[in-house]
Structure prediction request, 444 residues.
Amino acid sequence: MSTRTEPIRAVKGTRDLLPPETWRWQKVEDEARSVFHAYNFRELRTPIIERTELFARSVGADTDIVTKEMYTFEDRDHESLTLRPEATASVVRASIEHGLFNEGGAHKLYYMGPMFRRERPQKGRYRQFYQIGAEVLGSDHPAIDAEVLEMLHLFLERVGIKSFTLLINSVGNSKCRPEYVKVLRRALESVKSTMCPDCQRRAETNPLRVLDCKVEADQPIIARLPSILDHLCPECRQHFDRVLAELKQRGIPYEITPRLVRGLDYYTRTTFEITSGALGAQNALLGGGRYDGLSEKIGGPPAPGIGFSIGEDRLVLAVEEAERSKEASKPESKDAALTVYVAWLGDAALGPASTLVRELRRQGLSVEIDYEPTRLKKSMGIASKLGARFAIIIGDGELARGRYQVKDMSTGGQEEVEPAEITRHIESRLRSLNYFAEESRKPL
Ligand code: AMP
Prediction:
């Protein structure tokens, strides 16, 4: 009896992103790049591994992320390293390390890539997930907060997400928040014994975290706790009011949500989340806020900052959902499809076919050829299976006439075209079909 080796599978909570779905990921990334560019953000790429200390000091030693969810390991030289659970800390670390703060003015940076948290996997929640984020370092002007939210608004529109809600709050600063935490701690004294075990612990270690507890039975208790918005210092109140006024002026709707404190300790003043009904239980599409003081916490100069992180996995789900609900819309994956399949018949045609393929590819068209001799009928079957928009057929007759057959796969119509004219021919056909039109690129 032969023993079969068990196939090795991907690690729990991680997944392979396969074509054609990866096309959608590229689309949202391209759109992010284009919108970020319009707002003068530039890309920063930081390492995926960082010293564990970076996250303990920034995200916060008592947070769920740091206490329960990080992938931390000891390197061979006994240094403790961690797969990044988020990227803001890395962006600030890199900005300190490379002296960006010393240059003055606001620095606008964006990133995209995988993050790692050991959470319980479910739809929209993974252990390796992807974030697209942006940070503005060096300014605490309320208009910057509003500008960042305006940019997000535009981005979500561009990727076709229509229904979303901006939840916004202020969590105060290092002056007024500790006062509020004292008030909260006092209020929790009398009710904590009736709350979930996590809240009982949080009431001691990090009372703010009680506010984002998701346990159903705790919600009425949480609703009666004092609100941070009643305990902001005059400066924070003024900042928050100015952010809201800026949002109004830009026509951006929001919902003030006093319980929104988010799961990371570094936030100050403005915090926000955008939720989308299309997502079900894991409905937070993105989150962010201000983190004045984070730079100092990790050894940098005083430098305010604000940023956000979009959960790309959830964004892609929401984009798919939005497309599904858009009636009569053709799947956008057409754009990803192959443009040309070249079929050759007879040995003499292979050389000219390869030359044509190289030329068309140099012109930027997506082209495929099979180097095995194949019968015409089978070739057309392959072209249609690959979703090619056009098939080009080159046989002895075509070689003799110096004109190749260009077949429109959607209509079946066929024309003879000179090799040098083929790109122009195809592009004009595509343009007349509005093939290159970008559905989502609509003006505000
Ligand atoms: P955070 O970094 O916790 O502020 O999260 C920002 C966004 O990242 C969330 O709104 C989610 O969209 C996404 N996100 C966070 N954790 C996960 C996860 N485990 N799986 C998928 N997306 C996540």
User: Anything to note?
Assistant: The radius of gyration is 27 Å. The chain has two domains: 21-176+232-325, 337-439.
